[in-house]
Description:
Blueprint (H helix, E strand, L loop, with lengths): L22 H7 L2 H7 L19 E5 L5 E4 L3 E2 L7 E2 L8 E6 L6 E6 L5 E7 L9 E5 L4 E5 L3 H4 L1
Antiparallel strand pairs: 1-2, 1-9, 3-4, 4-8, 5-6, 6-7, 7-8
Amino acid sequence: MRHRDTSSTPSTSGKPYAVQRTDEEWRAALTPAEYQVLRQAGTEPAFRGEYTDTKTQGVYSCRACGTELFRSDTKFESHCGWPSFYSPLAGDTVEYIEDRAFGMKRVEVRCANCGSHLGHVFGGEGYDTPTDQRYCINSISLRLQPDEDPAAQA
């Protein structure tokens, strides 16, 4: 499987990413599987990701830099094999890159803070969501911070 190195690709704004590391620093900070997806635009196997079926309420952040990306209330069941969201937390937390790899035309989604590959976004598939978009995101690109349980604080 061919992978693209995202470590030296500039942001779509043309500005450097706020979080920058050398390839060696990324390799030291991430597991080999995380590095393969986040820094080489790989894909984890379908239906095996940590967050594919989770219903836990909270915020999903970039596993590479900690930027908050998605909330659990925008996660929905698309049955595609990866966590699906219909909208990012804020419009400027992700960036979009035209992806023509593997003979397909897709839109890659990256963390706007560090340039890490998250997955792809698809539109017009007919899901009953407010945006009719499916952000198909690799679990390994994310880290879930569960909402605090109000009952536990009492």
